[in-house]
Amino acid sequence: GGIGDLHPSLAVGHRAVLLQCHRQRQHHVGQLGGGVEAVGGHHDELGPLQGGGGSDTFKFTDGTSADVIKDFEVGSGGDVLDVHDLLPTAVQGATTESELGAYLQLVADGAGNTILMIDTDGTANTLSPTAVVTLQGVTDVLLADLLAAGQLKTL
């Protein structure tokens, strides 16, 4: 079946598809391409997200459970991580590593993947960083790299 068969509100079309994946797991599609915007979290039981060809945006609205993206493409014209909803208001819209470094970190997991971690209180050190997403097969990427390539959306 097509996208519409899985959920009637998912329409076929480039950049028009909105994929919502929350605890209910009611709108998950494992593979979509052509500019999919994936919204939410909690994909662990359904397997990793895979955007397919083209630049895809993965929007995170809930930081309580880490996701996995199977085919995240790094570099100009690659995929985008939208973390706006996870950031404190004070740094929403920030575009530099000096502004975001206390809140977002990229950590190598030792298995050839990179984990995006968020610390919602920054330098206050009250909360510990939590994993937002694992980028499968992505290594040697820095926060500055994602920011420079426009792959980290904060507004």
Name some characteristics of this structure.
globular; disordered N terminus; mainly beta; single chain
Itemize the secondary structure elements and their pairings.
Blueprint: H1 3-6, E1 18-21, E2 37-40, E3 57-59, E4 67-69, E5 80-82, H2 97-100, E6 104-108, E7 114-118, E8 130-135, H3 143-148, E9 152-153
Parallel strand pairs: 1-2, 2-3, 3-5, 4-8, 5-9
Antiparallel strand pairs: 6-7, 7-8
Describe this structure in words.
With 155 residues, this protein is mainly beta. The protein contains three helices and nine strands. Strands 1-2-3-5-9 form a five-stranded parallel sheet. The chain has a four-stranded mixed sheet with strand order 4-8-7-6, with no helix packed on it. A hairpin with a 5-residue loop joins β6 (104-108) and β7. Residues 1-34 have low confidence and may be disordered.
Largest sheet: 5 strands, parallel
Strands across the major sheet, in which order? 1-2-3-5-9
Taking pLDDT < 50 over at least 5 consecutive residues as the criterion, the unreliable ranges are: 1-34
Task: Please estimate the helix content.
Answer: under 10%
Beta-strand percent range: 15-25%
Overall geometric form: globular
SS class: mainly beta
Rg over CA atoms, rounded to whole Å, is 15 Å
The count of DSSP E runs of length 2 or more, i.e. the number of strands, is 9
Question: What is the ordering of alpha helices and beta strands?
Answer: HEEEEEHEEEHE
Q: Work out the helix count.
A: 3
Distance between the termini: 35 Å
Mean pLDDT, to the nearest integer, reads 77
